[in-house]
Amino acid sequence: QDDQFKKVISHAKEYGYVFQSSEIYDGLSAVYDYAQNGAELKKNIREYWWKAMVQMNDNIVGIDAAIFMHPTTWKASGHVDAFNDPLIDNKDSKKRYRADVLIEDYCAKIEAKIDKEVEKAAKRFGDSFDKAQFLATNTRVVEYQEKINTTLTRMARSLEKEDLADVKALIEELEIADPLTGSRNWTDVKQFNLMFGTKLGASAENAMDLYLRPETAQGIFVNFLNVQKTSRLKIPFGIAQTGKAFRNEIVARQFIFRMREFEQMEMQYFIKPGTQKEWYEQWKQTRLKWHMSLGLGAENYRFHDHEKLAHYADAAADIEFKFPFGFKELEGIHSRTDFDLSQHEKFSGKKLQYFDHEENLSYVPYVVETSIGLDRMFLAVFSNSLKEETLEDGSTRTVLALPSVLAPVKAAVFPLVKKDGLPEIAQQIIDELKWDFNVVYDEKDAVGRRYRRQDANGTPFCITVDHDTLEDNTVTIRHRDTMLQERVKIEALRDLIKQEVDM
Ligand code: ATP
């Protein structure tokens, strides 16, 4: 698992997907830059989301609110008071960790033990193996599950009551050690606010304290009535947005999974009070379908329904994805009630109500939100696509089998040799295709090497111009996943590629 994750990180660097920020200065922790291919993949994921959420839904519109917001926004939203993580310092190593993440990691290790037991039993019993029954009856597994349940419940309860001494006691009882040094010499657990502060204004006396937004959602809430009035949308309707968010994350050791500067893709769906259960269920299913449409494998997703709810929610679930380090949250679906709009009414003194003509009454709408991290989605797609294949002749190839619609480069065009007019024809093909797709030219090394390079880069098609092209205007097109080659007319290329890569 660890090895696979290391491969993902080094592949992302080697093929120009993700670099550490400010690498020449030894980097900045939990901050990353998207390189030439990464920026394309990220943009394609964003567009794929935008198309599904905004373009395909008559009643959802998209906005682009500023990162800076009036500081009262964050008092109203609860972030100033409650956007905290419990922190614990290790006296020996001087390292700092999120206490809840340490406890969750501990439970994940037990979960891995359960998986092992299941695997062993499945092998032993073969076809007659009944997983559900095994999970319910095997005493060791049942004990493991109970341990996980009691641990997580106790942690949730103490965090809710802000009983940090109990969180610390739990860490000690479970004998959790520093993941880097193995030491167990912890100091007290403290609350730590995750928002980044900054100042607006030139002189020290007049400067206004601002925060970099920790979520994009509030930009939607404060614009709710402006958008509703100018779009004349009727409830139910949604407002979507993508954009940067900032959190001073403490545990930041999982590459782009947990960053300090990241991008969110959020949609707030405004509904009539009392209808939140239906909409919540519906958005859970709609969002899962969106994920399935990318073909990363249904077995890699699962829902995690929350028992411990944030201060604003009456129901919440995560869509978890199987990352190289296990199942983790990829997207959240939250039934946020009228919490945010009511709070903004209270703090701003402005009415944020919707007049329902059918019912002939005004109310503060309820909200169901879908919130996904773009960078996390990037990691899901990228890590799932990276494969090491053994071919029939025993050789291996590295292939980044990205969904074609998301691939940064759709086709690479090669002249078989660097002479006889083949490079010029290849260039002409590029000049035609580049109006519709991102395409590249490559003439270096033997064609086999060029194929391998494009496979590892995630390019779905390779097009080779050879001497027959001079005779009949045909080229060879090779498919990344099957490695099958066909001979096609140059004029047919555009439609052929389009069929596979169109959103
Ligand atoms: P986590 O429990 O992993 O910290 P969260 O529950 O705080 O996440 P939300 O506040 O619900 O996350 O944010 C919605 C989405 O934004 C998450 O599902 C995740 O995909 C993404 N996200 C949140 N924090 C980060 C981060 N530090 N880096 C990258 N993506 C993030």
Tell me what you see in this structure.
The protein is of the alpha+beta class and 503 residues long. The chain folds into three domains: 1-64 and 197-387, Bira Bifunctional Protein, Domain 2 (BirA Bifunctional Protein, domain 2); 84-193, Herpes Virus-1; 409-501, 3-Layer(aba) Sandwich (Rossmann fold). The chain is built from 17 helices and 23 strands. The chain has helices at 2-14, 36-55, 72-76, 79-82, 99-125, 131-137, 139-160, 164-173, 217-222, 224-231, 276-292, 339-348, 374-385, 422-433, 447-457, 467-472, 493-501, and strands at 18-20, 32-34, 60-62, 84-90, 96-98, 186-193, 197-200, 208-211, 237-246, 261-271, 301-305, 315-323, 326-337, 354-356, 361-363, 366-373, 386-390, 396-400, 411-415, 439-441, 461-465, 474-479, 485-489. Helix 5 packs across helix 8. The relative contact order is 0.11. The site of adenosine-5'-triphosphate (ATP) has 16 residues, from strand 10, strand 13, strand 16 and helix 13.
Amino-to-carboxy terminus distance: 32 Å
Supply the number of structural domains. 3
**Overall average pLDDT:** 94
Oligomer: single chain
| Anisotropy-based shape | globular
Order the strands across the largest sheet as they lie in space. Answer: 3-9-10-16-13-12-11
Helix content range of the residues, please?
Answer: 25-40%
CATH superfamily of the largest domain: Bira Bifunctional Protein, Domain 2
At CATH level 3, the topology of the largest domain is BirA Bifunctional Protein, domain 2
Strands, total number: 23
Which ligands accompany this protein?
adenosine-5'-triphosphate
The CATH class designation of the largest domain is Alpha Beta
Number of helical stretches of at least 4 residues:
17
What's the CATH architecture name of the largest domain? 2-Layer Sandwich
Largest sheet descriptor: 7 strands, mixed
